[in-house]
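Good morning,

Attaching, inline, the backbone tokens for the sequence recovery test we're adding to the shared suite. The designed sequence is right after.
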């Protein structure tokens, strides 16, 4: 009896700060002053929304609001939970439900849905909610294996203090504190960099991509594109100017009912490219669905040049520019996201000379030879995988860097009597293949939208097999 008591005493007193911090491992979450917490320590977004209407309306159809209930996430996580015998729980939830992780309140229901599902009480099920971001009080970057932000490397301080970047804010409901971190991409970095918890491989690195980009060099933060309307983000990207410095843009308004008019109030929709889940959970009218399509249709541009027209053989080079993403195009889950080129050449009689990258009408699959701007991920045996817990490295990387481009060459030949050539190139975006959606959610449950990002069409005449180039954009000199 005495012995047991002594051992219990030793084990309690030996819990160092370090061990307490690793309580939620493999996530790097921690609670300020290591206090014990319960779900009730965080407030529901609906309560915040009573005074912060604008922020709430943006947030409620965002992927942050959906981060825990997102059915694609849940299905993949359930597969991971089974395959790793529980090792993914604190890892995946560290970012998708930080509150559920630190309160240990998430339940796995292995027999629900296609592959299993997870549930959590109250605000823990609301993903990345107001009180997740606004109670973040610091980062744990020095504790991570890679000494960089990632795997939810942040400290939370639930309670009365709400942190952001307003000067002289005062609220009847809560205390406020100015926080430098909330003005910086470093806040986002804690969740928008993911490395494998065992082998440290950087599976998703949106923040790293941004950090070494022209945008970071010009002090353009994630917020400057993702917390403003798409029209403003376009100007930010084109002029490398932060929103509050843009002359013809007015983002002023109320940060809260009862507060003063502020020069810049931030959108909270955090719109990216996800048109699938925003539509599935919010319907056609979801603001996030419409805005994500607008964002995707304003990120890239295409150029085309005919480089060879000898002996009836034509070569065309299509150039895809990433003009306005502050990171690679696409970013994050690049092993499943699909940005691809469709190129079709026809002559004046409508005869097809070339076709690449057209979705199969029946199966919704992409033909094998399609150019996709993605990565190939493999497991420890070098086998292709789409499961993040299996990834040990990428064997190919074909995403397009910020303000960078990729060129793709296509070849085709003419019919002897072809007079005119029309070449049409289209850049498409899909969050993932229909095949993966069917596998994760059940066949036919969700139709993955195919977003046409940008199209370019060029025509030129062929006379006596000598091409006379009338179209300036088809430049043969490079
Ligand atoms: C009763 C009304 C009310 C409620 C409810 C409320 N707030 Fe506020 N909040 C305010 C007011 C007023 C301000 C100050 C606005 C200003 O000065 O422009 C404010 C300011 C803020 C700020 C800015 C802090 C800073 O220093 O930059 C944040 C962040 C914030 N609130 C988050 C929240 C969150 C999260 C919730 C829910 C947990 C919440 N608020 C609930 C009224 C409220
Ligand atoms: C993903 C993190 C995140 C979430 C979730 C989030 N916010 Fe914010 N919020 C921020 C950041 C970052 C800023 C400051 C941006 C800056 O200054 O560049 C901010 C600013 C604010 C402000 C100050 C006024 C403004 O708009 O600039 C208020 C008030 C606020 N948020 C309330 C809320 C409420 C209410 C919710 C939930 C409905 C919420 N936030 C959800 C990150 C978040
Ligand atoms: C470090 C934070 C972090 C961790 C850890 C994390 N995720 Fe995510 N996850 C994200 C972010 C950020 C996105 C959004 C990226 C985007 O939309 O491009 C995301 C998106 C996803 C999506 C895409 C959902 C959709 O609708 O397209 C899936 C699926 C997903 N995560 C599964 C997982 C699984 C399974 C795990 C654990 C093995 C995991 N995540 C661990 C941050 C994280
Ligand atoms: C606590 C973790 C966390 C923080 C902090 C965070 N995010 Fe996210 N973010 C996520 C997760 C998780 C998702 C994906 C949810 C899903 O797809 O199921 C996501 C998705 C997104 C998306 C994708 C939306 C889409 O339509 O594809 C954007 C854009 C985004 N976040 C921007 C930001 C920015 C900007 C910040 C910093 C102000 C930030 N996030 C901070 C976890 C976080
Ligand atoms: C110069 C503007 C700009 C900046 C800065 C920027 N983004 Fe983006 N982001 C975009 C555009 C445009 C898209 C849509 C195209 C795409 O998916 O890449 C996007 C898409 C995303 C997506 C969704 C990707 C997908 O396909 O699922 C996430 C997540 C994201 N951004 C997070 C961030 C984070 C985190 C930062 C800061 C580290 C950041 N962004 C900085 C413009 C920007």
């Amino acid at each position: 009896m005495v012995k047991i008591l002594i051992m219990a005493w030793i084990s309690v007193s030996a819990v160092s700060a370090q061990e307490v911090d690793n309580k939620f491992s493999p996530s790097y979450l921690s609670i300020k002053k290591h206090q014990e917490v319960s779900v009730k320590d965080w407030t529901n977004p609906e309560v915040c929304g009573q005074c912060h209407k604008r922020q709430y309306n943006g947030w409620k159809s965002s992927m942050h609001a959906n981060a825990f209930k997102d059915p694609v996430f849940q299905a993949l996580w359930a597969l991971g939970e089974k395959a790793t015998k529980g090792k993914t729980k604190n890892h995946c939830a560290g970012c998708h439900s930080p509150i559920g992780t630190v309160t240990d309140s998430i339940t796995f229901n292995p027999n629900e849905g296609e592959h299993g599902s997870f549930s959590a009480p109250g605000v823990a099920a609301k993903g990345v909610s107001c009180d997740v971001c606004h109670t973040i009080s610091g980062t744990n970057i020095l504790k991570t294996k890679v000494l960089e932000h990632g795997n939810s490397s942040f400290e939370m301080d639930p309670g009365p203090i709400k942190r952001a970047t307003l000067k002289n804010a005062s609220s009847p409901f809560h205390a406020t504190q100015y926080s430098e971190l909330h003005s910086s991409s470093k806040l986002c970095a804690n969740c928008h960099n993911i490395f494998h918890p065992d082998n440290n491989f950087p599976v998703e690195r949106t923040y790293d991509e941004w950090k070494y980009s022209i945008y970071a060099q010009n002090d353009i933060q994630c917020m400057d594109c993702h917390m403003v309307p798409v029209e403003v983000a376009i100007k930010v990207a084109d002029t490398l100017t932060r929103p509050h410095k843009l002359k013809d843009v007015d983002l002023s308004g109320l940060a809260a009912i009862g507060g003063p008019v502020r020069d810049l109030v931030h959108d909270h929709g955090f719109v990216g490219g996800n048109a699938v889940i925003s539509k599935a959970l919010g319907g056609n009218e979801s603001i996030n669905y419409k805005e994500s399509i607008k964002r995707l249709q304003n990120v890239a541009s295409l150029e085309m040049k005919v480089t060879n027209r000898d002996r009836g053989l034509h070569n065309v080079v299509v150039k895809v520019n990433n003009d306005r993403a502050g990171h690679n195009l696409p970013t994050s889950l690049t092993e499943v996201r699909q940005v691809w080129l469709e190129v079709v050449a026809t002559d004046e009689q409508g005869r097809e000379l070339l076709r690449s990258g057209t979705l199969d009408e029946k199966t919704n699959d992409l033909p094998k030879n399609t150019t996709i701007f993605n990565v190939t991920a493999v497991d420890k045996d070098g086998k292709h995988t789409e499961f993040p817990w299996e990834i040990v490295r990428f064997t190919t990387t074909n995403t397009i860097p910020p303000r960078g481009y990729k060129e793709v060459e296509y070849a085709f030949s003419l019919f002897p009597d072809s007079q005119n050539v029309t070449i049409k190139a289209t850049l498409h975006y899909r969050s993932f293949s229909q095949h993966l959606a069917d596998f994760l959610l059940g066949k036919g449950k969700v139709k993955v939208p195919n977003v046409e990002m940008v199209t370019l069409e060029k025509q030129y005449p062929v006379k006596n097999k000598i091409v006379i180039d009338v179209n300036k954009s088809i430049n043969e000199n490079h």
